[in-house]
Amino acid sequence: MAKTEQIMAAIDARFDDQIEFLDKLTRFPSTRGQEEGAQKFLAAELEQRGYQTDLWEVKVEDIAHLPGFSPVIGNYDNALNVVGTHKSKQNKGKSLILNGHIDVVPVGPLDMWDVAPFDPFCKDGWMYGRGVGDMKAGIVANLFALDALRACGVQPSADVHFQSVVEEECTGNGALACLQRGYTADAALIPEPFSEKLISAQIGVIWFQVHLKGIPVHVLEAGNGSNAIEASYPVIAALKELEKEWNAPECRNPHYHSCDHPLNLNIGKIEGGDWASSVPSWCCLDVRMAIFPGQDLKEAQKRIEDCIAKAARQDAFLTKNPPKVVYHGFLAEGYALADHKKDEATQAIGALETAHQTVTGKGLEQFAVTATTDARFFGLYADIPALVYGPHAEAIHGFNERVELESVKRVTKSIALFIANWCDLEPLEGASS
Predict the structure, then answer these.
(1) What is the domain count for the chain?
(2) Which of 332, 359, 386 finishes a domain?
(3) What is the DSSP string of 92-136?
(4) I need a labelling partner for 295 at 20 to 30 A (CA). Which of 90, 216, 264, 310 fits?
(5) Is 339 marked active-site?
């Protein structure tokens, strides 16, 4: 049976191929609604490797009734998920989900990138490109960890579901659709780019819009109208006060006591008005607010709505023209792996700690992150311990996003050794033991 050294050597031997594969995958501009090409590419690769491959279009009506569903705006045309399943022969070990998301965030102004964002390149030990860190390097690490085991003549002795999902960056509904389709396991591993650390807790996220109305007039008589964009100022100020209140030390979740500002409000987008010389009659704010693990979503929504309503009552115009709150995108609860009571949680963490220690010679650091991931679906709604552990990346969601290649190699080795430990190993069909 393959030894630890053999598995790590197999990853070293194929790392140039892994970098080339990551380059190909990053070239797909898989922003929301454009994921089809990348998903079909992965499906073909999974089929070529002999995995049972499932490629399907996510349908809102299939998942809208499920816990964890987030409301969407627009349709899901070409929202494709892909799962490749390894079926074990002996089924001695524990089953595993290897999950990653294929969707990437928008690139922003192209002239602020050093090189076109979907034209990846390597320099000084880094690969650059939109999505290369968040999180295509992790998806590729999952796949090449499995490849390394096969190269050693072995395979997991338990079922493994390799998942590439859509919608992580705005709802998480892609991961939810995998659960709805029946893909479960004893644990899940998601190699998000958090610098080879294990996420012990993650916050929840609420996306919402605030719609405001104004009274349009020609700017020559601006005093007789009401500016919908300027009407947003007291609303934003009130939300900032709510953010401050929720971040007070006495309000913090225990996992975030050492974090100075764990819950971040973001006014991510403002649209409004129709003409520079017309007082704007409308304004829309797109807002992101975070909540702690264990914080009730409906109560948080009520607090947000009450906050906006109070600000409106203190403004003469908004009193008569109250803002409207519309929810779309994330309605995500927080999740704490550290609080997961199932025995498999402790066992999975221990298996990953051992793998990480073997590869790096260092203990596995854990921390509470101020972002959300798809881990919540597995942990909260399927009672599957979800480990988030991936390579070191920089400028994710920013310009010149990049991932450190040596970190990718180390994480691939850790994933492979984790699979070997967690799933156990059996001879690859047709290979000598």
Answers:
(1) 2
(2) 332
(3) -S--EEEEEE--B-----GGGSSS-TTS-EEETTEEESTTIIIII
(4) 310
(5) no
What residue numbers bound the domain in which 216 lies? 204-332
Q: What is the mean pLDDT of residues 427-433?
A: 67
DSSP class of residue 223? Answer: G
Q: Do 189 and 218 fall within a single domain?
A: no
> Are 113 and 160 in the same domain?
yes
Do 221 and 247 lie in a common domain?
Answer: yes
Of 36, 45, 134, 168, the catalytic one is 168
d(CA 430, CA 433): 9
Q: What is the pTM of this model?
A: 0.95
346 and 390 co-located in one domain: yes
The stretch 116-141 carries a mean pLDDT of 98
What CA dihedral angle connects 339, 345, 350 and 355, to 10 degrees? -120
> Could you tell me where the DSSP H helices lie in 363-426?
375-381, 405-423
Strands 366-369 and 198-202: parallel
Distance, CA of 188 to CA of 320 (rounded, Å): 51
Q: Does residue 127 have a cis peptide bond before it, meaning omega lies within 30 degrees of 0?
A: no
In a domain, 432, yes or no: no
pLDDT band at 365 (very low <50, low <70, confident <90, very high): very high
Q: Is residue 186 annotated as part of the catalytic site, yes or no?
A: no
Q: Is residue 212 part of a domain?
A: yes
Spatial contact of 305 and 211, defined as CB atoms under 8 Å apart: no
Contact at 8 Å (CB) between 117 and 130? yes
Confidence at 430, pLDDT banded by 50, 70, 90:
low
- CATH at 318: 3.30.70.360
Catalytic residue among 103, 186, 192, 404: 103
Over residues 73-93, mean pLDDT: 91
Q: 96 is written with which tokens?
A: 């595993």
What pLDDT, on a 0 to 100 scale, did the predictor assign at position 1?
54
Q: What is the pLDDT of residue 433?
A: 40
Measured distance CA(105)–CA(71) in Å, rounded: 18
Mean pLDDT of the chain: 96
For residues 72 and 171, is the Cβ–Cβ distance under 8 A?
yes
Residues 211, 195: one domain? no
